[in-house]
Every structure is written in C-alpha cells, then in structure tokens.
Amino acid sequence: MKISRGEKWFHYTNNIVLGLFAILCFLPFIYVLAQSFSSHRAVASGEVLFWPIEFHTAAYAELFKDDYFLHSFLISIGRTVIGTLINIALTCLLAYPLSKAYIKGRGVILMGIVFTMLFNGGMIPTYLVVRATGLLDTIWALILPTAISAFNVMIMKTFFQSVPNELEESARIDGCSNLGILIRIVVPLSMPAIATISLFHAVAHWNAYFDAVLYIMDRDLYPVQVYLRELIQFDQTDINLKDDWESQLIATETLKAAALLVSTLPILMVYPFLQKYFVKGALIGSVKG
Q1: 106-112: which pairs have CB atoms within 8 A and are 24 or more residues apart?
Q2: Which domains does the chain have, with CATH numbers?
Q3: Residue 240's pLDDT is what?
Q4: Cβ contact 273:202 at 8 Å
Q5: Closest listed residue to residue 193, CA positions, set 92, 272, 90
Q6: CB pairs under 8 A, 24+ apart, for 223-229?
Q7: 279 band by pLDDT with thresholds 50, 70 and 90
Q8: pTM given for the model
Q9: 90 vs 145: CA distance, rounded Å
C-alpha cells in the first residue's frame, strides 16, 4: 500500500513528538541516578544535573547496611507477591461465573459490583471494618481490604466471555468440573488479560503506603514506601551519616535518590516480562463482549 507524502510527514512528526515525550519522562530518572552517585559537596552546591559529580557509591553501601530498609523492602516484596496472587485468584473465581449468562442472579451481582466502582464507604468506615476484623497491625491489613478490584473483575469477565463455549462443552463431556474448566482451559487462554491485571495489582501493592500508615503501628511491618515517606518527607533514617569521613560524603538528598532508585527496580524488572501482554490484554478485555 502506497503511503502519501502527507502520511509520511505525519509518521515522522509523530515519532519525533513521541520520542521527545519519552525523553522528558526519562530525564527525572537520569537526574535521580546522577544524584545518587554524586558527593555531598556536588549535590549541596547544585552542580549535579544529568551526570554524577565526584562519583562514589557510598550512598548505596550505607543503604544496604540499613536493616530497617532491607526489612521494609522484604515486607513490600512479600505484600506484592502474596497480594497479587490473592487478587488474581479471587478475580478469576468471581469473574468466571459472571461471564455465564445462565447463572441466576448474575445481573444483580454485576449491578452491585458496578455500584462499588462509583460509591464506597470512605476511609473511616473502612478503618472500622479493618479494626473490627482484627486485621490491625498485621500484614493482612495491607492485602485483604483490596483483595478484589471491581474494574479488574469487569475486564476479566469480558475476556472470559470471548473464550469459545465449544471448548468448555467438550471438556464438560469428558467429565471436567467447572473449576477444572477454569483452571485447565479458561485461565491458560486468558493469560494476556491475567498478566495485565497482575501488573495493575503488583504496581498498586508496591506503590501503596497510605494503608500502612492507617492500619500499621508496628514499625517492623512498614513497607518500603513508608520508609521512603519517612526519609523524604521527614528526613528520618537509622543511617548515621556522621561516624566517619566516607559517610560525610553522603548528602541526605543523595541517600534519598539511592533509596528511590533501589525501590523502583523491582517493578522495572517485572514490567518487561509482562509488557508484551499488556496492550493485548487491556484492549481485548475492554472491547470484546
């Protein structure tokens, strides 16, 4: 198919604009990276822009020696892994029966789910529920209140509706139960959508901090985002920057930059493995049906 000159110029312009936008999005990461490898003097004098000045790695060394940071990092990893698995399991178990038109009461349940997308009890009623169920000061207070996302249930329901009924009928003839059909047939065929909502849930769990501030009083259960909040907003850290000459090279801003980068790495490492499913899963789950 021949492309006109106007279409060529549009493609060139579009690529240039998107490229510039990508660079603008990437520049803050470069700045934080440069700051994390720079000395106290360079950071304090404002010399650091997009390249480290007086390169050193003392901030990372001190950060990884901080037991509080390492413990909060592990808490966030555990919350993200366990929480995402629970999210996916419950979402699939709820979305699959709702995708079947023959289920009685399906419309009422769908109406209730959509209602929760528009209205909710708010922060105080949610806190009272968490307290009444005995979840305060436990890791489950960070997982169970957000175990179901109505938006993701609707995406999975729409995706499940696109699975051919003939496959399920043949499996049922072979003696497969409804749960077996879901696990052995429907879930493998729905991996693009599952990978997409897994990414949604994982990012939400990893970035969440406000629920930990509300429900957790035990400092040993704080996730890494609360650690970053204390460090960035209140300059609170267990790291002593005055004991020796090497520690005095580290500015508080340098330590903040190092902590931000290390805390961002897990999601950056996961995303490339799920990116190929992301667009396909979001589009099919939102459009089909």
Answers
A1: 110/157
A2: 66-287 (1.10.3720.10)
A3: 60
A4: no
A5: 92
A6: 223/72, 223/75, 223/76, 223/79, 223/142, 224/69, 224/72, 224/73, 224/75, 224/76, 224/263, 225/76, 225/263, 226/72, 227/68, 227/69, 227/72, 227/73, 227/259, 228/256, 228/259, 228/260, 228/263
A7: low
A8: 0.81
A9: 13
